[in-house]
Amino acid sequence: MKKEALLILVADAEKKVHDLFKELKKEIKGLEIFHALNSDEAIQIFSQHPIDLAFIDLYLFPVHGLEILKKIKSIIPQADVVITSYEPMIQNFRACLTHGALDFLPKPLTVDILKEVLQGREEKVYKPHVFVPPKLSHHPFILKEHSKNTYMKFWGTRGSHSVSGVEYLRFGGNTACLEIRCGEHLVIIDAGTGLTNLGQELLKEPEQTHIELLIGHTHLDHVAGLPGFGPLHDPKFTVTIRAPINFYKNTKELLRDMLTHAFFPVDLEEIRASLKFKELITRSPFEIGPLKIDCHYTYHPGTTLGFKIHIGDLKIGYITDNEALMGYLGDPKQITLDHPLLAPHLDFIDFFKEVDILVHEAQYNPKTYVDKVGWGHSSIYNAAVLVKYINPKIWIITHHDPEDNDEMIQKKHEIILEACHYLEIPAGINIAFDGMKINF
Q1: pTM of the model
Q2: Is the pLDDT confidence value at 18 over 90?
């Protein structure tokens, strides 16, 4: 009695798989092969022909290969189905065999593997291939090894005053404090309430004995962390505090006013660390180890500075308090480089031009800014105009309004993204949060 042809279905979107089966047919007689490029064609062929053996790609479209397997088994229960995939995963392997697949084969397929399947099936006792995890290279590719000691980390991202509560867990409630590390060199910018937590970590580092603290201005939200800053009360530390010349008192005098027994158990004379005070002067760059630092005035009540930090070829701009285009409530697209409202900011823009990372506030949404004009903080749209002309690679928004909870900041993020799209700003956008760390 003449043996009937073995009916094989190949369901795969990849042309070279079909070519492989054409090659197989040349080597083995008695095969009739049906070809399907998608799941709809595969199901149709099964409904019209008594298929004996099918090879189905796991990610065939529009229906997943596992669902096709189930469908085939409902039409022809005795049919043998082999599932193939470029992405062999143990869960898929087990699921396919559980639902009646004859085998699960990783791609790429070869004629020899197909012959093995045909031979094993003919012997009536077919054993599926043992699952083998994908081979991994010995060393994963990493574009750049990040040093654990070269980074910036936000310890406080609130403005005006600190906040607490479950509605502030995502972005945090501490006021401004930024840590920058470059090897053994440590620079802290701003001494808001986030400084207290940073201080507790520094006390655990026996090798860290010198701290450079830069204060952009002496409003309370930027110095409130000083009394509880642990290293001030440890004699092993030398703390250099750099701040601009204040309208009223110098930094040492202001700190003496804060650290009195009426407000705090330890006064300035009882501080155990070695304290040094230096004045920050705009356009007078200085170096702290490999870091080169310069500063520029911002538009904010009192003497207020923003900082530009060079770490090798990397440039970072850090500006927490700056009211751009004070009082402007109109269309931000109308503010061109020759607009009179932008004139006071041109030198500022030139100073921070094309930094890699720009940390700049956008404290008020367009509606709340109406009642906060002249408070020294920017609306989203006005800040976006500055960012457009500075043209950083990344804009990180900080100094969040204490009235904004997590949900409101998330909404503000959406408005910022819309504003950047409207103004065709190509920078990546991020919202700073307490604990946010960026490795360099």
Answers
A1: 0.77
A2: yes
The predicted-structure confidence for 206-244, as pLDDT tens digits, reads as follows: 889 999 999 999 999 999 999 999 999 999 999 999 999
Q: What is the pLDDT of residues 155-173, one digit of tens each?
A: 999 999 999 999 999 999 9
CA distance 323 to 308: 18
Alpha-carbon span 58 to 105, nearest angstrom? 10
Long-range CB pairs of 110-117 (<8 Å, 24+ gap) are 110/20, 111/20, 111/23, 111/24, 111/27, 114/20, 114/21, 114/24, 114/55, 115/24, 115/27, 115/28, 117/53, 117/82
Cα(127)–Cα(216) distance, rounded to whole angstroms?
72
Q: What value does the mean pLDDT take over residues 188-194?
A: 97
Domains and CATH numbers, the chain: 6-122 (3.40.50.2300), 150-439 (3.60.15.10)
Return contacts of 201-204, CB within 8 angstroms, 24+ apart: 202/230, 202/231, 202/237, 203/230, 203/231, 203/234
